[in-house]
Model the fold of this input.
Amino acid sequence: MKKFKINIAVFTVCLFYLSCSKLEEHPQSFITQNAYYTNEKQAVAGVNGIYSILTSPGCYGYFYRLAELPTDQGETGGLFQPSEPTTSSLNNFTFNSSNSTFEDFWQDHYIGINDANLAIAKIPGISMDATEQKRLIAEARFLRALLYFNLVRLFGDVPMPTTYTNSTENLDLARTSTTEVYKLIESDLTSAIPDLPTSYSATDIGRATKGAALTLLGKVYLTLKDWQDAKSTLKSVIDLNQYSLFPNYSDLWQLSNKNGQEFIFSVQYQAGVINSAYSTEFAPRSSGIQAGQSYGEVAPTPTFLKLYASNDTRLSFFKDSYPKYQSSVIVNFGHPFCFKYFDLDEGGNSGQNYPVLRFADVLLMYAEAENEIDGVGDGSMYSSIWGLNQIRVRAGQPAKTSTDFTQSSLRNEIWDERSRELCFEGHRWFDLVRTNTLIQAAAAAGKTATQKNLVCPIPQPEINADKNLVQNPGY
Amino acid sequence: MKNYLPAFRNWHFKPIWFKISLALICLLLADKGYSNGLFYHHGNNAPIVVHGKVTDSLGNPIAKASVIEKGTTTGTVTNDKGDFVINVSRKNALLTISSVGFITKDVQFTDENFITVTLKDSRSSLDEIVVIGYGTSKKGDLTGSISSIKGSDINAAPVSNVVQGLEGKIAGVNVTNTSGGKPGGDITIRIRGFNSINSGNGPLYVIDGFPGVGDLNSINPNEIASVDILKDASATAIYGARGANGVVLITTKKGAAGKTVVNFDYSQGIQAPLKLYHLIDATQFAEVANIVNEANGLSPVFSNPASFGVGTDWQRQLFNTAPLQNAQLSISGGDQKMKFTISAGYFSQDGIEIGSGYKRTSLSTNIESKISDKFTVGAYIYGAGIVNNADDPAATSAALTISPILTVKDSTGRYLTNSDLASKYGFGFYSKGNPIAMANVENTTTQTHVLANTYLQYKIIPSLTFKTTFGADIEYGRYGYYEPNGTPDGGTINVGGTAQLSTSKYVSWLNENTLTYDKHLNDRNYLNIVGGITFQGTASSSVTATAEGFTDDFYKYNNLSLGSIQLPSSSTTDSYQLNSYFIRGNYELDNKYLATFTSRIDGSSRFGENNKYGFFPSGAIGWRVSQEDFMKQITFISNLKLRASYGITGNQDIGSFQSLANIGGTQYILGGQRVVGAQPITIANPDLKWEKTAQFDLGIDVAFFKDRLSITADYYNKITSDLLLEKPVPASSGFTTSLQNAGKVGNKGIELSINSVNVKSNDFQWNTGFNITFNRNKVLNLGGTDAIISNGYLWYFGDYSIAKVGYPIGEFYTYKFEGIWQTSQAAEAAKYGEKPGDPKFEDVNHDGVINSNDLTMVGSAQPDFTYGFSSNLTYKSFDFGITLNGTYGNKVMNDSYIDVNFPNGTTNLTTDAFNNRWTPTNPSNTHMRIGSDINPSTSSEYLESGSFLEISNVVLGYNLPKSLTDKIKLSKVRIYASVQDLYTFTKYTGYNPEANAFGADNLRLGYDYSYYPLARTFNLGINVTF
Done:
């Protein structure tokens, strides 16, 4: 019996020592940050992770809310049911810092920026194919530039972390001046351009190309009114001979053309894999024309539709009636809606991409910069009016000649053409702010914008969480 | 026992005595009938006359007590004064004294010729055995705050979940049936308030010593002999890092030595929805759409509303009466060496919502065997199989909003929704789906749960016991989902079926080793020390696969490869471990002064590398004032005890790996194909540790009139600090929150329970119990932020919950409704873009615009107090029981009204919103006009009083007379009828004021949206014992 007692004691002591050192955690379904970025595959996955943020609601998922609603071009399509206050306040400029659209935008953009910062810091330490290594870093820089460009245009000065977050220490960043942010964007893009390829093999289509980085840089220069750099950068996009306009405007919105000749950089979707919501978001709410629920988040304003000539082929993408789903009954909406992203059979599974940069934009940006430098031009290649005419002719409109414009009237015409050509593709609010025409354009559409609306409010949860963050004036 | 041990020992050393005894026993066995006489005649000389008196513990004489000389037939009874006279056969004879209601006592007659015998009341609650962590205690010896309830009280009527049976019965324990009549639905239990904001607030469940049993829903409540709830730190500290939210100790039924008892119980019930909304009919629905168009200057939508008649009553289509069945069989018995219980149970409940239901089949064995004087082994093995057909949580809101004009299906068999009406009539009827189609979506979880716990106990010396247990809690689950072709859920018509299948496995193993020293050191000092080392590990994993585009609905989720679209499958794995060391000492002096000290060291893998181990001490003292001499005079007080305790416990209820920087997976499309990406999800926090709750408790137990009236009152004050808080961090870091130890929450309160035995006679017994709890919860600190705002169910309409410093957790944060703009206020209304008849909200910041800056706190979801009442009567063969429970002062947000009280014509409406709508001639201040073009928004308009008093259970039973049961050779037959959730007294206008769309969420409390209505259940049952 004594022996037995000893056995129990020994057994207990053994258990004690066996178990007490086992409190370390060894997760099997994820890798910790410090153990990540050790090989080529992880480098690729890390950069893919930055791309993945593009589809998030706060990034390009709901981009149209901010880009189209507080403008003269779009309004809430809630004719059948009043829209949520989140969107209706954007539409009528009554939004404040608590509107969740801003918070979503801020959060998702910075998630992407932190991912990019991590990739940019870690990938150089991996031993791998040098060309691919450079390319991946360049992609990360392109994406970081794109995200910062959206942030700085929307909010003005913004916090500008360039290193990844590794602890909860020192997270209360103050706002960095717009100038400094643009410097980072410019340096990211200029360093990325040489390392990015002009095109990719089939399996990598959708990654950032040299053309994408050049186009974005051109847009940055145009926004900064640096006409010379804008012109030369955009001209180099044209001279890549990589991009051309589709013959017909309607070709742009064929699913089969979604990464075709005119598209420079798009947010990628695939039906049934990662579905895009633009088809249901833009179709009139509860109209029954789609297999699923439609939401009518944004619709064109009557003011905007007046910009089109009656024979403009692009007008066919605005419809005020459509057959009911799987039926010949025509549903009348009583108001036109934008059908660019319309995907008939989707039932929640749409593969429509969201175009961020396309060649028509390049031509119009080039035309704008060239007009500022050299005026209207004679219509020959690389003249301002040459750029404009390519867009007009495709839309079934007669080409203009040099005598039709002064520099000033051409400027306005290009801005209007941008609205006609690029409507509901995420440009309008930025164009109106860039050209300082937001307040008058809003007024023309019967909305009241004020000076404070030239930047958006810093989201209130961020003001609360970050003690060094100061709100924009007026909010 | 201890008195006799030396005598037995002596026998070993005195063989002669041993031999004589043996001879006597042989004789005894040889002729039992003769033995009495043998003793009598061979005893010492002539009989001795003994005089005596029998009294109760208060000195009152006990009449008619039986006095028998042990081993003989000689006996007598006491007279009215408690006196007796008996002739005994010899000196040192043993007298057995017994009386109904008292503990039988053997006294040894020595030289005195007058003895006084005091019998203890067998019904004295002070001698009840209470289960405490790693041991038991007499109720009278407790220093901590522990409430106990018997299994028979829990199972007074068939309940599917043990927690349901606790509702309203215990002070300080708030049980909320947040999921109404949903079979197998969530029931939340909160002990002494809410400690945590982001970590768990539920108690630790311990079944027969196995802590942390995962799924209580799968435990058959009929397995349970008793539930003991540990509330204060003195009681819970033994569970250290898991004790802060209270501990629920569940003890299963054990066999008893003696005759084998077979018990069979069967009941059959029927459930019906308790309450439905009054909604408008098809004609009125059409009128509403016409009024809306008229308000907008448009022509009528429907030319002849009356032609639609009454239309479809969708609630009646969706909710039906449904049966409930419960069958239980148990066999128990044993002898001095081995005791066993085997039981089997079957519980089947169809839901009142079509397509939902719950079935549980369970089997258990409980066995204990004394191998020798020193060794005891035992095992409890429980297995259950569960099939849960879940409802579609959105079906109710679809039923409330869908137009009564529509039929369930059209002539081609296609389900109809408001979208069909919208495209037919060109009006924006809003579709939330077809409720019947949604309810028919298959949503089935099958679960297998096995709980096995074995132990070996070794008595090293009589006062020192070693016990080791090995156990495992194993759950295997399979979840299948199939949405058939053409199901309109939400607004989306499913093109091709969608199937999902997932399986999950959960294993928790346990080894506990304890040493217990228990000894009355001498007449005055009693000591009980328990020390232990325990290890517990848990591992879980799951796999989920999804496919879409099934053209044939036959396969459901049973052949996923036939879906035309294969969605990514996913899998998870998780594990954690706890290593614990604890010790508890109980000391009693003179049976008056009690002291307890407990401490536990818990190591948890879940915490940061800098904080793996935590120390949780507690101490308590008790004073049994009624044992003092000066109290003996005050005879009407039968018990008086004061208790005080203080201690620290923890809460480790967060997921695993939360202290690590996690790189998670994301996906994107490149080249038209899915590619996998990596993305940081969390920031590392190597300092992460448990929440710490410091609790002070002051309690009094007092009983009057021989325990006929007993009162327990406790005051407690808890401060929880180092909250496991998802603290907002600036999003410019790439993260929105980080799990940190920050902030403080306080709970203090008073608990009172009063139990009385109103009538106690042979034919008629009547007991009542009442309890009430006042808890005051307050957020004291949020680690630098002022408030945490959490989105309510319809947050985009301005519906939020807030935890704000200085206020209770879960205040509603929304717009403040100020009535309806009246005609005379047209000018002021116009400033806000509104017209007479539109709702008016408070412009909190007076900026002339109603927007999110005007959100404000409008009420609390936490009650001022909760209470319960129960009463049991037994009259001859009849028994009757009733249980009530209620809350007072809490608010409920009825979000259903954003649909059915917002008359813009797009959804169905309540008759109230229709009949009492504002019109220029009916200047209502509560219901807006029909056809307002304002944005819908949630507000305090939809906030209602959630106070209620519910008759949760009524039981009437009848025991067949013994003459009859004897004839059919049964020992007991009881027939009973019960009603559960008979009636709720409340001003709340929704389905049930206990609703919470967020289940057991910590912050978002009291949201009623798309609720599964409460059911009233009638049961008829029979219980047979033989």
The beta strands of chain A are 31-32, 74-75, 263-267, 299-300, 318-323, 330-338, 354-358.
